[in-house]
From TrEMBL:
The keyword DNA repair does not apply. Residues 1-30 form the signal peptide. Coiled coil: none annotated. InterPro entries: Leu-rich_rpt (IPR001611), LRR_dom_sf (IPR032675), SDS22/Internalin_LRR (IPR050836). Keywords: Leucine-rich repeat, Repeat, Signal. It holds the Pfam family LRR_1. This is Protein phosphatase 1 regulatory subunit. The keyword Signal applies. Gene3D superfamilies: Ribonuclease Inhibitor (3.80.10.10).
Amino acid sequence: DRSLLPLLLVEMRFLVIALVALSSIETALSVKCSIESINYAPGNAEEFCVLKGLKTDGAATGDIQTDPSITRVAIVDSSLKRLTAAFYERFPRLEHLVVRNSGLEQLHITNIVRIIDAPGNQIKSISIQGGGALQELNLHSNSISDITPISGLVGLTKLNLGATSIANDNSFDFTDLGRLTNLTELYIDGLDLYYLENTNKRVLPNLRVLDLSHNPLTPSNFQLDLFRAMPKLEVLLLRNCLLTSLSVYPDELRTDFPSLEKIYLEGNHLKCPRFTQLLDILKANGIDPVEPEQAEECSQGFMSISQMCCQFLMLPPTETTTTSSTTTVHPSSTTQEPKQLSNWQKFKNWFG
């Protein structure tokens, strides 16, 4: 009966979908992984082939099972120390690798993977076989100290080296990343940096986001003309850098930062008059000094301006003359206690 043909076609379509799904599950089981949703970045979750408790990457096994259909793999809660080429042989189409809560010390990168998200492990060294496809590399909070192999990954667009050991005598030289001309985001927060350099004046022509937060930068060595080598920089994060001063010249600001749109300044020790002046200069040049979502809690000697704390300049105490005589003052109903001025009122009175 021809009237039943459309119904049969629909049923066959559902059957094919079910068989494909079953095949994918069986294949995943063949490499001993489970399909789970992994949040690999804030607001980003994908289905991954999750390998838990992995102790070997496959190099020691005689019969390596492979799955050409799996493109996303997550290694979780693993005691694996080394990730070698044998691992990638198991997943010949791997594009996205996540490593979490692992004892991984050596990371191998091949030419097929595009994204590696491996923060908070124990990675000390990196070996590269090709690596031309890699676009994003997150090594935040690892023990790596040598970025020489990374400097050759010319396809990188996002690089996170925050809270690692790459600083050289509390200094970072942007020349070391001079070949990474495709970089759009660079995170080097929490490196205990005092100095920033660019000894060979290498240009990062596409860099748009730079995070320097949580580095105790030395104000006298923090020269803004350094950023001229980043002509497309749009967002600069200087959170909690303990800066006590920041020299900004209005007529050179847009020369130093031709494309800057936002700057994050909370957690520094700038003096309030200078800080107020700095905010005005930034706004006048079309740069948004982004206010934190919640106001900072200011410690003694600091006050809040635009939800951020600045160092409050206190006047020296007034000298008083004491005598040996004692005077007793009896408060009357008409006597009023002196009104306490707020920090902001004092600031306005002292600095206009």
